[in-house]
Amino acid sequence: MIFIYLLGLSLMLFAIGIAGISSSRHFIVMMFSVEIVLVAAALLAASVFSYLGTGNILLLLFAVWAIAAAEVVVAISLYQYMVKADVSLDVSKLSKLKE
Amino acid sequence: MDLIFFIVAVFEIASVIAVFKLKDILHAAIALASVFFANSIMFLLIDQDLLAILQLFIMIGGVSTYIFVGVASGSFSRFKHTSYIGLAVISVVLAAVLLYPLVALGSSSTVSNALTGSEISADMSSSIQYLYFVAIFIFAVSIGAVIVMKRIGGKK
Hints:
heterodimer, A: mainly alpha, B: mainly alpha, 6 helices
């Protein structure tokens, strides 16, 4: 029974994360939304593997965690650059490639 | 176990919503760390102890620490308020919640999952307490580092 609950929870987290990515214009909030999507994916994968009882989930989750960590490193570096260069964190203002 | 699941699920969804609703980036980062923590409890509930520890170790000990320090060092000027009483209350509650599995592990004769009661495999039971302690320690140090940075930034 808990598998169904976990499935629902991970899908809810995934939906909230996707809604956050699509609706937010703040750079950091979008980064956090991607983290939430990755957390939902990890939870879904772990619950499915636990339910089926086969395979090695660790390798898949290491890939998810590596993607999450790499994304944070890139995003925080960009954030610090944007703060120091006094660039707006509103991504809708960054859509133009040329002035 | 269902009751624990529902409590943790509500906590996790509330933390996710708080990530979008909070105005301070640092507070949103703490809410995101709460999401990671709730997710590791979910791993414990499905008897994936190693995944729970690794989730704490990587996502809270590593990623959240980096987010805290990176966000705090990028925007000193926005930190103008600090409620020390609120900070103390949150710290005590966080410490109690985070240290509970460590105490539960230490007090039991056979190392078992603190939530489900199932026995943890022998190859990881020897190192699970150290990994958990290190993850929580790094997380606590990161919060301490942010507080120190806020004080230094406030004096500029």
